[in-house]
Design brief:
Radius of gyration: 16 Å
Helix content: 25-40%
Strand order of the largest sheet: 1-2-3-10-5-8
Order of helices and strands: HHHHHEEEEEEEEEE
Number of strands: 10
């Protein structure tokens, strides 16, 4: 049997999570607001979820996106070489995510590099885990982060730290895009 790629392993893991909870596609659709047809295509690896849809699924399962993506990657050692750092991209939104230091059993934090093409915007309906601690350090470009009624515009070198609650959005500078490092601390 041929080895599955990351997208296929993600589809299998999403189906496993739903079945472990005893949920039907209809029940998951109600919980996430994602159509039953879309969920079915995602679980069959016919389509890849966008970052926003993946976030909704993570919220339903109580997982961070990095935790979910780490579950579909190979087990890593203490040293994570660049070749071992999983990269996932949402072509629709222009978001590329590299897990520099993926989640691991005995570590509370993970380090992620995010890149957004110029003008890209990602809207999240809810955090995967309420109150999740995050620190974002902007390396290049410009990035506006909105959480509820609060909004911050970061310039290179700025660091924003917060506990994620409610709806949020990430929007890259119109011409420069954004490249940032994100530290996620597990509760």
């Amino acid at each position: 049997m041929p080895e599955l790629n990351t997208e296929q392993r993600l589809a299998v893991r999403l189906a496993e999570l739903r079945l472990q909870r005893g949920w039907s596609l209809d029940e998951l659709s109600v919980a996430t607001g994602i159509s039953r047809a879309s969920l079915s295509r995602i679980e069959r690896s016919e389509t890849s979820p966008t970052a926003a849809l993946l976030n909704r699924l993570c919220a339903a399962y109580g997982l961070t996106m990095s935790r979910l993506l780490s579950e579909v990657e190979e087990e890593s050692s203490l040293l994570v070489t660049q070749e071992q750092q999983p990269v996932w991209q949402d072509k629709a939104s222009g978001f590329i995510r590299r897990n520099i230091s993926p989640p691991a059993l005995h570590f509370r934090c993970e380090l992620v590099e995010g890149r957004l093409r110029p003008g890209a915007r990602i809207d999240y309906d809810a955090p995967p885990i309420q109150g999740l601690e995050q620190h974002i350090w902007l390396r290049d470009g410009g990035l506006t982060i909105t959480m509820g009624s609060q909004e911050w515009t970061l310039q290179p070198g700025d660091c924003l730290r917060f506990h994620l609650t409610g709806k949020s959005a990430f929007e890259a500078h119109l011409t420069d895009g954004a490249r940032y490092l994100l530290v996620v601390a597990k509760p």
